[in-house]
Design a protein that fits this description.
Layout: E1 13-19, H1 26-35, E2 43-49, E3 58-64, H2 67-70, E4 83-89, E5 104-108, E6 111-118, H3 124-133, H4 143-155, H5 161-169, E7 177-181, E8 186-190, E9 199-203, E10 206-210, H6 213-218, E11 222-226, E12 231-235, E13 241-245, E14 257-258, H7 259-265, E15 271-272, E16 275-276, H8 277-291, E17 298-301, H9 307-317, E18 325-327, H10 340-350, E19 351-353, H11 355-358, E20 362-367, H12 374-385, E21 390-395, H13 417-420, H14 423-430, E22 434-437, H15 443-447, E23 453-454, H16 456-459, H17 469-472
Parallel strand pairs: 14-23, 17-20, 20-21, 21-22
Antiparallel strand pairs: 1-4, 1-10, 2-3, 2-4, 5-6, 6-7, 7-8, 8-12, 9-10, 9-11, 12-13, 15-16, 18-19
Length: 478
Amino acid sequence: MSHYETGLKEECGVFGIYDLDGGDVSRSVYYGLEALQHRGQESCGIAVSDTEGPKGRVKSCKGIGLLSEVFRPGKIEELNGNIGVGHVRYSTSGSLNVNNAQPLVLNYIKGSLALAHNGNLVNALELREEMENSGAIFHTTIDSEVIAYCIARERVKSDKIEDAVKKACDQIRGAFAIVLMSPRKLIGARDPYGLRPLCIGKRDNAYIFASEDCALHSIGAEFIRDVRPGEIVTVGTDGELRSTFMDSVVDPAKQARCIFEYIYFARLDSKIDGVSVYDARIRGGAALARSFPVEADLVVGVPDSGLASAKGYSEESGIPFGMAFHKNSYVGRTFIKPSQDERESSVRIKLSVIESVVRGKRIVLVDDSIVRGTTIGNLIRTLKRFGATEVHVRISSPPFLHPCYFGVDVPSNKQLIASSHSVEEIRKMIGADSLGYMPIEELQNMVGKDLPICKACFNSDYPMEVPTHEIRDLLEGC
């Protein structure tokens, strides 16, 4: 599937920085978000403030498109301040609307706050209805606004912003990584299950929160540690990191990191909760080779997330690894094309086969998932058109069978090819000579036995109570 098939989308990326020496942070936010652009390409935004300036004065800019499209020359220079948060977004229910872009900036009786959120709440609708009945007016359709209002409401009754964040986090349920900027503090919070990633970094006298540590490296910051599940970390004017935990924190054995961070979402050079994404994908490819061996001449991966798994398959099987595709990075994003035919045409333009590599070869084609089957089928046909004699497909995740409620845009069951077809039926539909999916029992081995993972989209074993399908269709995260 990789980045080219409509259906499964990346999540969102959050970033925040507080320079205690008073240096301007807008460029650091921009470059940090640029490193997280793979997590969201529909909209983006940056909000900054000056901790020494007038309380509550927040400068922000957000819009539809990539960072390079929204932040034209000169725009960053208008956003000066020493504390800032940023966000890159993919919507999880298809609403492409500038009002839903983040960060969300609220001005209220206690000043201001700017919030960036990655994830989905499972009780967002019930909280929203309660707030609307008490007079709240919502300007977006995202559950991130519910979180922001929750915090603002609790702040009126609390002595400190971090106390308000804690009270709010104990009311919300679901997946969340939050970076929040108040007039004098930067706060990071992670859901009690650890579903969404969030880490802490430091550069000179500046502290940073980011979805992945690759964003820290992009601005020359040092990784300190991951925010722990259920933890709220505050950076104040004294430069100390202060930590507190939500009352809703769960037993470590019941925590559940999203396995798709390691299979697909996270960048290859990131490390999440101590596990290298690259190493996890290598192990996944090796598991595929052991589970589904085949006689072949070459192992290739679908760029980008299938490449490391393909290398792992190659190393375990002894079949040479090769690069069969050229990826054109300068083609427009496929999701904005108005028809399925045009989207598929854009996919073909983005990914072309290198004929001299595949002609006359039996190919093992490794990818991260199959959602509807359209893209992998097109790639198989193209490989054979350019001379591949056989194409054996290996998928580094089990078949998608169930919806996700925590921020992964898995389509409804009727759109999931595996929910209504057997593996053999799918093989015939996509035109593969053989097809093997990652055995679900091998997923834990990708990250190691000590890191609990969420596999609910494969086996419906959700880590918490989830809403009905009807309610899910109304939810929108990030």
